[in-house]
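Predict structure. Input: Bifunctional tetrahydrofolate synthase/dihydrofolate synthase, 115 residues.
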Amino acid sequence: HAAEYLTGRMKALPKNGRVLAVIGMLHDKDIAGTLAWLKSVVDDWYCAPLEGPRGATAEQLLEHLGNGKSFDSVAQAWDAAMADAKAEDTVLVCGSFHTVAHVMEVIDARRSGGK
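Output follows.
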């Protein structure tokens, strides 16, 4: 299970600051099981919807978390997490390859001078 593996890897890292997680998931995946693993290593949640008919809403993710922040897009969640992060913190992007791809697109666009 990917969430179990990721949790183990995160626990193996030196813990200097907080872990801020930008998360978006597909609603037909095991949201409860995934978040149950990750809750032990994440301090702050930045929940975003994924586009398309299979995308879970940020509110659906928050139902399983009980706390966290909700955003209208992965890009907004990423921007907020990066704004809140201090130098010693870790910003984790997880939940779906789609979430990671959105963040990579944002980073690539900004490197090329886009917004």
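The longest strand covers residues 19-23.
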